[in-house]
Specification:
Length: about 110
């Protein structure tokens, strides 16, 4: 397969960043990956600093993009769990490499 020019409109990196870019989505993905399945409030506690609105919007977008599975159980109170799709799980080693690189190369403030 022909490699597309970096930063062109068809660049794979641009495509990835369009669905997981921003401040929160990678943190949400890695938090779910660490636990396997998380409920909404557990996820909110793990991702420090995220607002309810941003978490809800990010989860909705991740679900729409095929990266997160949302399961709702019709109990009282309603229980909702989030899990990564098999496609998203293939990204985890790459994201963990970025995490390791950041810990080694970017000093704490």
């Amino acid at each position: 397969m022909k490699r597309q020019p970096i930063a062109s409109t068809v660049c794979g990196l641009r495509k990835v960043l369009s669905i997981i870019g921003g401040k929160w989505k990678i943190l949400i993905i890695c938090s779910i990956a660490e636990e396997g399945i998380l409920r909404y409030n557990e996820l909110r506690r793990k991702v420090e600093g995220i607002t309810n609105t941003m978490l809800a919007n990010s989860l909705h977008e991740l679900e729409k993009d095929g990266l997160v599975i949302r399961r709702q159980y019709d109990e009282m109170p309603v229980r909702v769990e989030y899990e990564l799709t098999p496609k998203c799980k293939t990204m985890i080693p790459i994201l963990l490499e970025l995490k390791d690189w950041g810990e080694k190369n970017i000093p704490e403030n």
